[in-house]
């Protein structure tokens, strides 16, 4: 089974957020009450003391299980069965003994922690707000090679998702989730916050409506993220690093803070044209050092096929020493994408030895028809320090190949 490029999140879970956006947790319960569209909503969690409340990496596991259930055909009884190695891959984790142990710990915590939602769960088909009590994983069993229940390469995990979660998914109360982007984020709490923010953008009564701006009270946001503090300074510091990464990676345009004390308000401005990246493009752009935010902008402006063709052309020119990168690969690739006519494929006569069984000569329409061959840009001038910028025509510089 292979993971799909387009994943989903159950909208009740992403809106209410049952996972603490903290890397570590010590508390065994939390109780949050808030107002939403004129309704009072109460969400509670009780966990076993040895596990603490679900947090951090548990967000990766819940997202993986939701999409696994969808890929398995959304069975009516909510049951799933998967190998430990496959589930690790869906979580975006390495297949090592350390992560086998972590996976088991997360599954145990999601199975034993109990949730109670009062007036906050949306029954999408009936258009009503309901109450629910459940464990994320209602039943859990797995195979193991020893009495300690250690996960290994042969472990098979079986279980059943909560009826409330199953009902929402089967009724279509889901939203898109860019799992490729989420799992590329550096820390568990950043991935959890991304998922919370992504869910907060959707109107619970009209899930087809997506917000570009979100303003929320700082203390209320701590409750939403399950940050165990009521001190404004502590709350501000907890998501500071995730905020920085989400802005840098192009998901958030800005994060602002206004007011004083407990009246402080967080203001999130989302990048409206945020574009989901497929796995191939995302991984390939990273090899050149192109930031995700820049890559998404390129996809919107040029399209996937043109970008892949441009990267192939770039690789060919560099491999055959027609293009010598003087600065960075990212800057050179950006210039090629912006000015493709200045970078024709090398012809047989221009690059001796290119036409081999392994690397056949590739020509542009101009060279095939006998048109003049343009000289490639071999050296990156100073203006390319700002990737994507176009130089004035009188500043473009080519080196003669004669």
What's the SSE blueprint?
Layout: E1 7-10, H1 11-16, E2 29-36, E3 39-46, H2 58-71, E4 79-83, H3 84-91, H4 97-112, E5 114-123, E6 128-134, E7 137-142, E8 156-161, H5 163-170, E9 174-177, H6 179-184, H7 188-200, E10 213-217, H8 218-225, H9 232-237, H10 240-248, E11 252-258, E12 265-270, H11 279-288, H12 292-302, H13 304-319, H14 329-338, H15 365-368
Antiparallel strand pairs: 1-9, 2-3, 3-5, 4-8, 5-6, 7-8, 10-12, 11-12
Helix pairs in contact: 7-10
What does this structure look like?
The chain is an alpha+beta fold and 402 residues long. The chain has two domains: 7-270, no CATH class; 279-395, no CATH class. The chain has helices spanning 11-16, 58-71, 84-91, 97-112, 163-170, 179-184, 188-200, 218-225, 232-237, 240-248, 279-288, 292-302, 304-319, 329-338, 365-368, and strands spanning 7-10, 29-36, 39-46, 79-83, 114-123, 128-134, 137-142, 156-161, 174-177, 213-217, 252-258, 265-270. The longest helix is centred in the first third of the chain and has 16 residues, at 97-112. The N and C termini lie far apart (54 Å). Pfam families: RPA. InterPro entries: Replication_initiator_prot_A. This is Replication initiator protein A.
């Amino acid at each position: 089974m292979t993971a799909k490029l387009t994943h989903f999140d159950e909208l009740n879970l992403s809106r209410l957020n049952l996972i603490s956006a903290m890397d570590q947790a010590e508390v065994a319960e939390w109780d949050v009450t808030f107002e939403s569209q004129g309704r009072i909503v109460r969400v509670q969690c009780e966990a076993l003391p040895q596990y603490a409340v679900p947090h951090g990496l548990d967000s990766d596991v819940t997202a993986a299980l939701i999409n696994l259930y969808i890929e398995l055909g959304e069975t009516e009884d909510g049951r799933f069965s998967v190998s430990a190695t496959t589930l690790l891959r869906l979580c975006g984790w390495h297949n090592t003994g350390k992560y086998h142990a972590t996976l088991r710990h997360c599954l145990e915590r999601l199975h034993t922690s109990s949730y109670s939602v009062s007036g906050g769960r949306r029954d999408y088909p009936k258009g009503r707000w309901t109450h629910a009590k459940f464990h994320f994983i209602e039943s859990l069993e797995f195979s193991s090679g020893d009495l300690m229940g250690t996960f290994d390469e042969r472990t098979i995990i079986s279980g059943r998702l909560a009826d409330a979660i199953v009902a929402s998914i089967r009724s279509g109360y889901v939203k898109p989730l860019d799992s490729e982007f989420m799992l590329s984020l550096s820390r568990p709490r950043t991935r959890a916050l991304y998922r919370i923010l992504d869910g907060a953008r959707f109107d619970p009564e009209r899930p087809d409506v997506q917000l570009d701006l979100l303003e929320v009270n700082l203390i209320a946001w701590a409750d939403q993220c399950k940050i165990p503090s009521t001190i404004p300074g502590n709350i501000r510091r907890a998501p500071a690093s995730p905020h920085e990464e989400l802005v840098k990676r192009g998901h958030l345009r800005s994060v602002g803070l206004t007011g004083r004390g407990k009246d402080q308000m967080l203001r999130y401005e989302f990048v409206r044209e945020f574009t989901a990246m497929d796995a191939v493009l995302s991984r390939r752009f990273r090899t050149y050092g192109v930031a995700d935010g820049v890559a998404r902008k390129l996809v919107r402006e040029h399209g996937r096929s043109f970008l892949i063709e441009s990267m192939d052309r770039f690789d060919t020119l560099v491999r055959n020493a027609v293009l010598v990168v003087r600065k960075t690969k990212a800057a050179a690739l950006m210039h090629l994408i912006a000015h493709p006519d200045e970078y024709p494929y090398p012809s047989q006569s221009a690059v001796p030895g290119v036409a081999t069984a392994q690397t056949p000569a590739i020509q542009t329409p101009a060279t095939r028809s006998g048109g003049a061959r343009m000289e490639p840009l071999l050296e990156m001038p100073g203006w390319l320090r700002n990737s994507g910028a176009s130089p004035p025509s009188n500043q473009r510089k080519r080196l003669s190949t004669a």
